[in-house]
Amino acid sequence: MGASSSNLTVTGLRPSTRTGPCLGDMPESCVACMFTYLSPPEICSLARLNRAFRGAASSDTVWESKLPHNYRDLLDLIMPPERYRNLCKKDIFALLSRPVPFDDGNKEVWLDMVTGRVCVSISAKAMAITGIEDRRYWNWIHTEESRFNIAAYLQQIWWFEADGSVKFPFPADVYTLSFRTHLGKFSKRLGRRVCSFENTHGWDIKPVRFELSTSGGQDSCAECFLDDCDKDEITGSYKRGYWVEYKVGEFIVSASDPATEIRFSMKQIDCTHSKGGIYVDNVSIIPSDLKKSRRMLLK
Amino acid sequence: MTSSKTIVLRSSDGATFEVDEAVALHSLMIKHRIETGGADSTTIDVPEVTGNTLSKVIEYCKKHVEAPNSDDLKSFDTDFVKVDQAVLCHLAKASYYMNIKGLLDLSSKTIADMFKGKTVEQIRETFHIKNDFTPEEEEELRKENSWNLFV
User: What is the pTM of this model?
Assistant: First the structure.
């Protein structure tokens, strides 16, 4: 340092002609301080500025602040220690920012790349679905449209029920739980996606009941008709032919909870009418702010 | 310690500033120097900081020490960083060397906000940062950060 007085003009400060404005030679730890106010994608982008920025962009201090507080518990649950033991914090973040399967691959966890917050998804494969073993009622369909590449398709049934649960070290946050479903059977015809609603019935007669409850005693429920009660023949139903995320409710995890267990269900068990023509894909548990900002279709 | 004691701070370019000891202690670096320097240390050199910047740093410390609970502290801080980017960078560096957390956080956050929404090229231009990478290093960097889909 020991810069001379070449930049001592009080007004209209010009960059010093000798060393240039000092962001270029900012110490790494100082840059690291700036990075605490930036998101992971911004940090990775700024790593390209110069060597000092690149160094700060790999700093453990910076990345530890982007990881959830209980990331070690998360790692313990989902992968063997050899896989993460020698990784720096940035690489741990990178590892966790892609969906990591656990529980025999029927569940996934990932960190939102921008905020570092934890998201979990539970496949229909991990749920208890009434009649799932009977192919007159349900079939497993392999599809790229599911993040698990498989979804349960219902032909028809009277007692419709899908239950599941997950026990997970969620970091403190407010989470939204949703069921992802699709009315109508889709397929590819000459490269185009087509939907058939031949089988889709019963969802406009009585609503479906969604419920969730946590080990901490929080409960939430919602009821919804999955199909439109007055279908306009011209415009068709906007509930058909699309993947819809039905919000069941929210729950809070506080900092002191080591692991939270959540039970959830989706039911329509009025046996006076049959229902069918629906896919049940997964349940997602996403921090509520994240959910709102991504504007997914909510009930 | 009586509050009437003053300390003289000397910048890299020889400018001197007489400040109340309580204000000077807001810098943990100076606090440490005083505590380890003995009773005679009334003049403290701050060779990492020029006079212009030191004067601003002192202004910050004064406000935060003398009126820490005042209602206008927030607006003081907001106005304090309405300076051009060169001054801002000097403030960030000075607060880092002098270990003044509040000012480091304030200036870092302000600079970070100036980065948002700009491309790397735009930031290089605004802040006059030289690209000191070799083409091989740049390629390596691209691979290093390829996991981040937003980059």
Answer: 0.83
